[in-house]
Amino acid sequence: MSITIQPPPTARPVTGTLGFKLFQHAYVVRDLGAAIEIFKNRYGFARFTMVKMPPMQGGLAVRIALAWSAGLMTELIEARGPGLELYTDWLAGGADIRLHHFGYLIETDEQWSVLEALLAAEGRPHLFGGDSPLCRFVYVYAPELGHYLEYVYPTPEGKAFFESGAAN
């Protein structure tokens, strides 16, 4: 037997900031190698793509691994050092792996403008964000949900980068 769930034909995205295309969920991890092993051994991920991060000054370090499964990207983030508290403080209380954010894909300038207006209307301040060669991005906190939301508007290079993540 094969079961496929299809949304009803009238189903459309919600009109608030959760109405964009969900493409990623991300976890902050204490030890990237150990987390990859857990995802492999316990959750069936065969492969991850390690992201080459540029060197950072002042003892800061970020290591990232990406994997695609069933149309959703899983991102594992290990961060160390001052200035990275958006990630490092997330593991307070002794957790080794913790859901950090859902990533939403922004595909056009118009969608980015709509997002900015929705964030302002919802009173959600930008906590972290910017422009990189791969994407424009912004993090906001959703206290009712207990995690962050990240909005990602990739450049053509960023699109290729995200699509190059390991497929499982």
Topology of helices and strands:
Layout: E1 21-29, H1 32-43, E2 49-51, E3 61-69, E4 72-80, H2 85-88, E5 97-105, H3 109-122, E6 128-131, E7 135-142, E8 147-154, H4 156-163, E9 166-167
Parallel strand pairs: 1-4, 3-9, 5-8
Antiparallel strand pairs: 1-5, 2-3, 3-4, 6-7, 7-8
* CATH class membership: Alpha Beta
Average residue pLDDT:
91
- How many helical stretches? 4
CATH topology: 2,3-Dihydroxybiphenyl 1,2-Dioxygenase, domain 1
Describe the structure.
This protein has helices at residues 32-43, 85-88, 109-122, 156-163; strands at residues 21-29, 49-51, 61-69, 72-80, 97-105, 128-131, 135-142, 147-154, 166-167. Helices cover 23% and strands 36% of the residues. A hairpin with a 3-residue loop joins β6 and β7. The model has no long low-confidence stretch (mean pLDDT 91). It is an alpha/beta fold and 168 residues long. The protein has 4 helices and 9 strands; from the N terminus they run βαβββαβαβββαβ. Strands 1, 2, 3, 4, 5, 6, 7, 8 and 9 form a 9-stranded mixed beta sheet that branches. It has one domain (21-167): 2,3-Dihydroxybiphenyl 1,2-Dioxygenase, domain 1 (Roll), CATH 3.10.180.10.
List keywords for this structure.
single chain; 168 residues; alpha/beta; 2,3-Dihydroxybiphenyl 1,2-Dioxygenase, domain 1; nine-stranded mixed sheet
Short description:
With 168 residues, this protein is an alpha/beta fold. It has helices spanning 32-43, 85-88, 109-122, 156-163; strands at 21-29, 49-51, 61-69, 72-80, 97-105, 128-131, 135-142, 147-154, 166-167.
